[in-house]
UniProtKB/TrEMBL annotation:
One of its GO terms (cellular component) is prefoldin complex. It comes from Thamnophis sirtalis. One of its GO terms (biological process) is protein folding. Belongs to the prefoldin subunit alpha family. Pfam families: Prefoldin. The gene is LOC106544636. InterPro entries: PFD_alpha_archaea, Prefoldin, Prefoldin_subunit_alpha. This is Prefoldin subunit 5-like. It comes from the Eukaryota. The lineage of its organism: Eukaryota, Metazoa, Chordata, Craniata, Vertebrata. GO terms for molecular function: unfolded protein binding.
Length: 86
């Protein structure tokens, strides 16, 4: 949500640091806080990226195997439904 407003003190801002807690900081301290937060999150993403790629590969292999089995079952079902000549 966007709400226009004016700062009574442009040198200090309130930071939402999570779970309902706010901290008053100077603008430079706030910039530093967000720089550190971005660095932390970037490192966390880099850590989990290989695991995510491995899980994605496993999921694709499972989907492929399931599709093959479904095709086999469909082919087997179609051959059972065909009338045989006597």
């Amino acid at each position: 949500m966007y709400v226009p407003g004016k700062l009574s003190d442009g040198s200090h801002v309130l930071l939402d640091v999570g779970t309902g807690y706010y901290v008053e900081k100077t603008v430079d301290e706030a910039k530093d806080f967000f720089r550190r937060k971005i660095d932390f999150l970037t490192k966390q993403i880099e850590k989990i990226q290989p695991a995510f790629q491995e899980k994605h590969g496993m999921k694709q292999a499972v989907i492929e195997t399931m599709n093959q089995k479904i095709q086999q079952l469909a082919a087997a079902g179609a051959s059972q439904m065909m009338p045989t000549k006597a």
